[in-house]
Design brief:
binds zinc ion, globular, about 10% strand
Length: about 350
Amino acid sequence: MNLIFDAHLDLAMNAIEWNRDLTRPLEELRQREEGMKDKPDRGHGTISFAEMRRGGIGLCVATQLARVEHNAYSPIFGWRSPAQAWAMTQAQLAWYRAMEEAGEMVQIRDRAGLEDHVTKWRQADAMQAAQLPIGFIMSLEGADSMRTPAHLERSYADGLRAIGPAHYGPGVYANGTDASGGLNARGRDLIKEIDRLGLILDVTHLCDDCFWETLDLFQGPVWASHQNCRALVPHMRQFSDEQIRALVARDAVIGCALDAWMLVPGWVRGQTTPESSGVTLEHFANHIDHICQLAGNARHVGIGSDLDGCFGTEQTAQDLESIADLTKLSGILQARGYTEEDRNGINSATFIRFLLSHWK
Ligand SMILES: [Zn+2]
């Protein structure tokens, strides 16, 4: 298989909060949501395990995700306390374990496990891949649920290997999207604990102040799991060219995302449609290409689609019907002159190389 590594998928959130059984066919998942109005993306999901295998997405970063709500602001749900948020992340962990027991997924925690898994997928043909478990590296999106920085060691023992300190708005430790200001004292302690345990720090969602402070404070490996370019879509959720250059200098990898409002400027949630905006995978390729042009090479960018991360086909590229359509990216990049090595790197090899270089 031509392996694709997706650096950001909220699989457990879909299973538990959206009540999607990802072991079922995508068509069935959509049909079951017909007429439901509790979430904006009902009936528009793009992910099932079968679709992932069909597209060769045999390896991903899968999240635990639970926010704490401090004030009225947030586009997504938040819990009232870190203890409640922690409990949700533990439910998500329990679902990943159930999927491992069912042979649907396998958690990747170290270099040997990664090498073994990648070899299996690369050697498999499509029929064999349909039977393989999907590898996942567990990451925590937003650290609000860490009741204390010391709880991080427990999560590390559960296989947590990456963490983003912030999500939307002001967080328990750091300020995220649409907020401003630096880390608080607990946030600085958390960054030191992330360093001590050797987790990857995910700078996605950090506001600009926290981004620069974190890069100064943190010594270990950094990535941005789902992140696009401010030069193409002006908003602080995207990174400026200066931020992208700083990440390249740190030998970081940036995964580009497929949420339509981050692909094209002027998107209004619930109003703009893929058809009215004309958004396609070419726009996705534009963000990837912009990072490559800034870096001077294709060795710092990959895919962090964020598909089914509170949006589906109503808010993504119109030529993407399921996650399996990520396979179309390679042809788009080939038409723009990207070599086979570059395209393999963007599909998976760059993130894999990054992990192999930082893991024991
Ligand atoms: Zn996110």
